[in-house]
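Supplementary notes for students who missed Thursday's class. We covered one full example, reproduced here. Read the sequence, then the structure, then the short commentary at the end.
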Amino acid sequence: VTGVGINTEWGLLMASISEDTGEETPLQVRLNGVATFIGIVGLVVAFSVLAVLLARYFTGNTRNSNGTVQFHKGETSISQIVDDIIKIVTIAVTIVVVAVPEGLPLAVTLTLAYSMRKMMADKALVRRLSACETMGSATTICSDKTGTLTLNQMTVVEAYIGRQRLDPPDDSSKLHTRISSLLFTGIAQNTQGNVFEPKDGGAVEISGSPTEKAILSWAVKLGMKFEAMKSESTVLQVFPFNSEKKRGGVALKVQDSEAYIHWKGAAEILLASCTKYMDLNGQLQSIDGEKEFCKEAIDDMAARSLRCVAIAYRPFDVEKIPADTESLDKWVLPEDDLVLIGIVGIKDPCRPGVKDAVKVCIEAGVK
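Structure (token representation):
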């Protein structure tokens, strides 16, 4: 440990949050404006009343309850005049006292404190009262999706091999051995994830990003032996997944005679680079007549909020692979003339209660 408390990044962050900057909230600013306006009106009215009452008193228009005039010039005593003027001033002061709303800030504070207690009942701890006001003023909520609105447990729910849809997606009975071999090799080698199979025959443990885990889990259900597939081929060059290109690739050497480049990434981008596809019998077919079908399948999955990932490969001439390590490191993997193996649709299920929460927000007028 090299630092604690205020000497850590977290401590600095917490200190900046907890410091009271003295900045007024929008509600306080508006309330102060209202209070000032009412105060000014009250003072103007009080001075007007004072002036009118004094003028009426000294002109002999003010009478007692029995009808006699209060002020007679030269006759009314000084002490009587002082008493009457004090009564008039008292009326003016009363108007000022009643008009200035000194209880308004207190009433607002109590309302916010009540809101805070209500939010605590919903398991939301509010450290500052002004936060209740800010929450109440919200018109739009911008929310992260993955892991917030969803469970972050992605699973493959739809799969196309060639132009055939697998139903269910983990049905391996229709797969030709050549397809399953290329598919499993590509998935096992072109991944940052890992599959651990316990020796005692327990549940398979899969690590990696949510998308990687979904694809690896799907391949395991289809019958992939992760470690066996890893050992069958040698990795020559890796192109890690790139968010700009939306794909990741790996060059493999199988035995001594064959080399393959496997790609995995966003379906519509990889599809554009494909010239052939492999049918369920393991035969290569031209993709020209089937691109429209594949695009419709991708659009259909995307319309149902599925994440579409395509898996493709291309054979490569072993002799063209750079021999020395330095040239191999600089070697750019070819991205054209690919053969499409399959397209998978991955779904991240919604968290329970999200639908109701969104409905409540919409009914409250919050976007």
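Commentary. The chain has a mean pLDDT of 86. Residues 262 and 313 are 4 Å apart (CA to CA). If anything here is unclear, bring it to office hours.
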